[in-house]
Structure formats: C-alpha cells, structure tokens
Design brief:
Blueprint (H helix, E strand, L loop, with lengths): L8 E9 L2 E9 L5 E12 L6 E11 L3 H18 L4
Antiparallel strand pairs: 1-2, 2-3, 3-4
Length: 87
C-alpha cells in the first residue's frame, strides 16, 4: 500500500462538529490522479493518565468510486431523514 501521508494537498476543507473534526483533503497520486481523503479526528482523554489524544480514522476515495459513494451516502441520509423520530 502506498503511503499518501507526505503527499501535497491540492485542496482542503475542515468541518468542526462538537468533539469531532472532519478533514477533507484532495491529494494526487504519483500518476497525477486526484483522490479524496476524509479524516475523522476525535479528541479523547486517557482516564488514568489524563493524557489528551486524538483518535483518527481515515478513508481514501478515488475518482472511479465517487458516483457510487455519493449514491450510497445520499441513500443513507435520505433514509435517516425519512425514518428519524422527532425528539
């Protein structure tokens, strides 16, 4: 697996949502093809040491998967909107 961590970011957007922050970064492969990384970063505190850490989860999304990804994502959002009970 290629290490994309040192790749230059062509475009970036950040979304702060409570204790979570989402980073959307557009990068390029060695073949000059763009792809999207979505990183969720969540601030946590170790209860024993008091040390503050950031748990990160990352997905890589490539151009050939954009349409299928968005279709599935939108289907899930629509389902939640249609079936979420009001509190």
């Amino acid at each position: 697996m290629e290490n994309f961590q040192n790749q230059d970011v062509s475009f970036s957007s950040t979304l702060k949502a409570g204790r979570r922050t989402y980073f959307f970064d557009v990068k390029k492969t060695k073949n000059d093809e763009m792809f999207l990384t979505i990183t969720e970063s969540k601030k946590t505190t170790d209860m024993q040491t008091g040390e503050v850490k950031f748990d990160k989860h990352r997905i890589f999304l490539y151009n050939e998967d954009f349409e299928k990804f968005m279709e599935s994502f939108n289907n899930c959002v629509d389902f939640i909107k249609s079936n979420q009970t009001a509190e």
